Amino acid sequence: MSARIVVTGMGAVTPYGVGLDPLVAGLQARQPAFGALREPDASTWPVQVGGWVPELPSDQLGLIHNKLRGMGKYVRIGVLAAQQALTSAGWLPGTYDPDRVGAFIASGTHGHNAEGLFRAFAVSAGEDGRLDLARLAADGLDTVHPWWLLSTISNNLIFFVTHFLNLRGANTNACNSAVAGAYALDRALDALARGDVDVALVGGADTPVNWQMMSDLHTLGFLAAGTPDEVLPWQPWSGAGRGAVLSDGAAFLVLEAEGRARSRGASPLAVVEGLALRATGADVMAPAADGAAIAGVVGELLEGLPPEAPLAVCGAGVGLARWDAAERQGLDRALGGRAHRLYGAKTWLGHAFSASFPLEMVVAILDLRHGLGLALPGASASGKGEAGLAGAGGAVPGAVGAGPLAFPEASPEVSPEAFREASPVAGAVGWTTAGAGSKGAGPDGDPGRACWAGRAGRACRALVLGQCFGENTAGVRLHVV
Asked: What is the pLDDT of residues 117-149, one digit of tens each?
């Protein structure tokens, strides 16, 4: 990159609530955002665990426009998270040139919208309980919303984000991949470097906790199937490898050149130091066992970084045994004896699928700015915890992350009212500037421990990694400033 690109604003909607404050609080508490699903009713589904963001009317999210009322949930939470990010970056309506602000967006698989047909199927059952096409034509079709198909197609999000926020610059819409956000980020960095835009809004939204998506991914063997008692507690790299746990979510980041940001008085949150993308397609369903794809991405991201530089690694941590084993192999090969702290954001947030990469970028920045010290349960600074990787050696006094995860009997997002009470819409993007949430840091001057928590963590780099089908692998290197 010719000019340093910095993050100046962020926004998020997760099962923890609306905004960054609930996200930080949930991560500090080490309380998973997913659990046994009550809504939707998944009692008869093969997959019964997930992280649910409730259906909130658009006017309760501060978005009054009637057009959003008929749109899929991912559109509403995506527009809200995008609005938060621009506001927190100091870009209010009327303060930017719409032609110089671009939107680079990742969104999920929403075109089927099978749930929109459930009522029609229910009233069209024949005497034998099977679908009667004559009844469907006579009675069932009238129960289907006229916007049934249009309300959830994947490019709705980019339309409403650019429409509501008045963004007319270069744009990208990447769909249906856990690394879609990385490809959107790549296009944003390119647009900034070429001078096509001055400001890039990068992020995504996905609501994969629905019958269609969970059924499809279960059929592929991607999800942790079973009752909550069988699936929980869940964590990546545990060796159990039952599969991924899906969660709804949205996250956006605002990017701009550092000189421009500082000239307008903005305080950068992080520097985007590098991006690496690889896709071999060698195996449609899983990465190669030797972890070559992860090793290649991590090796590329580490270029030019001194070996003593503290490093926090937010791994892909999908939760499938084969995927996780390959990632560990790749990380071992690329990191060697370099001091690092490994964690998986999905341990607490679940897998937001197409929104996962930008959401986990937000988590990585919050981890360092707030001194969260996210780590694998039972891990120490040496990385030799339950899913240990080589590190600096020695436990960090007071480091967070040791001990078992506490899982709720039911997901904490079951009540829209409780969700709203815990989710202040206005002003939900506040920052704690130094050492907030610190549970203790290593001795001064010890780079092997500096990444754990507290003020020392602000000098740390973060790697955020993602993996998807077709051995699609991505990573970004961030430096909190």
From this structure: 888 989 999 999 899 999 999 999 999 888 777
